Amino acid sequence: MAGPLAHLRVLDLTRVLAGPWCTQTLGDLGADVIKVERPDTGDDTRAWGPSWLTDADGKDTNDSAYFSSCNRNKRSLTVDISKPEGQALLRELAAKCDILVENYKLGDLKRYGLDYASLSKANPTLVYCSITAYGQDGPYAQRPGYDLLCQAEGGLMAINGHADVEDGGPGGGPVKVVIAVTDVLSGLNATIAILAAIEARHTTGKGQHIDIALLDSIVQFGANQIATYFITGKVPKRVGNAHVNLAPYQSFKTGDGYMIVGAGNDGQWRKLCDAMGAADMAFRPEYLEMKDRNANRGQLVRDMEAILTLHPTQHWLDTFASLGIPHAPINTYDQVFAHPQVQHRGLRMNMERPAEQGGGTIAMVKSPIRMSDTPVTYRHAPPVKGSSTEAVLRDVLGKTDEDVAALTAKGVV
Fold first, then answer.
1. What does the H/E/C string look like for 260-287?
2. pLDDT in tens, 196-210
């Protein structure tokens, strides 16, 4: 099946993670994504190894595992954007595309006549999405920025990590989320905005410029933490794996590791105590209601761990399984992909690179989007740099063999 966006063509002028995450999603949904890369190095993340993808003979290629995480369902076209002929090619392509996504620094593409104002004159229906660290305006707009900086500036690091010693925790200071969550969120926000702009185009007949900022995305991610701050005026603190409003609801030591155990209401709390063989603990005055358990959280954790450490994690997983008590193991990724539900959902998949691209199998995570009538499709493995250059020039722009040869000889492609 072609996918719900098979009628759309995307010009992808992005690299690293936020932009490619967006365009991979559009590609998964069926769009024809043409990824533009530098002829020499390609996307920066191709070189972000180890680890490396392997070819059909099991030998390392020049492409990293990182690159494979966000570049399937794309065709790779190499263009030297610094050359006037390269800029002209991209303007030709933009005129034949529905969507353009870019994550250049503010003003860079304007020098080449590839900004929204320039391209929309030739293609008024173009949906043009810019992804930057700080947005298209404001005092920081000209600054480069990265996920770690935005996690810090946007408040996430300040609330992520173990509680400080003075707050009853082990301390350790602010901690980043190891996944580049700012990039992933910005890629998702860009996808949402693009699809909304395509829908609006049905009514207006016009495209528009979309402005996605990493800092905006991570600030909005603050959700209930920020809502509480707005209401109370109190700055949220780090609480580690605990929940600021629920107790118990966190990680606990067991006899051989750690697991998550929670009780979202008083009924679940009584069930939990009974399952731990400590039914009387549910009715102790300091633990009777949620407000009591929150007020006495430190002692509650110590009392529960005194019981949970008597048996290994699997004992408690089996004990809690049928009781409706929130619980989970803390899985490493090898355990994640051995998880029965993950296996049932088929979240690990393999894609094969064509033999002309060196072959080789690439293990990937499936899209989480499930649609009954127009499902996600997996048509192209993450491409070798420039592997579709000639095909795109011929099929999309109608270039002849002589045209392609001339562009190649000049180093434009």
1. EEECCCHHHHHHHHHHCCCHHHHHCHHH
2. 999 999 999 999 999
With CA atoms as reference, report the closest residue to 181 among 336, 52, 21: 21
Q: Where are the domains of the chain?
A: 9-220+343-409, 249-330
Residue at 215: amino acid letter: L
166: CB partners within 8 A, 6+ apart: none
Q: Would you please indicate which residues are annotated as catalytic (active-site) residues?
A: 183
The predicted-structure confidence for 77-122, as pLDDT tens digits, reads as follows: 999 999 999 999 999 999 999 999 999 999 999 999 999 999 999 9
Superfamily of domain 9-220+343-409 in the CATH hierarchy: Crotonobetainyl-coa:carnitine coa-transferase; domain 1 (3.40.50.10540)
Residue 50, preceding peptide bond in cis (omega within 30° of 0):
yes
Beta bridge partners of 251: 260
Helix (H, G, I), strand (E, B) or coil at 11: strand
CA distances from 243 to 240, 247, 340, 368 (A): 8, 7, 27, 26
CATH code of the domain occupying 249-330: 3.30.1540.10
Q: How many CB atoms lie within 10 A of CB 297?
A: 17
Token pair, residue 391, equals 């095909």
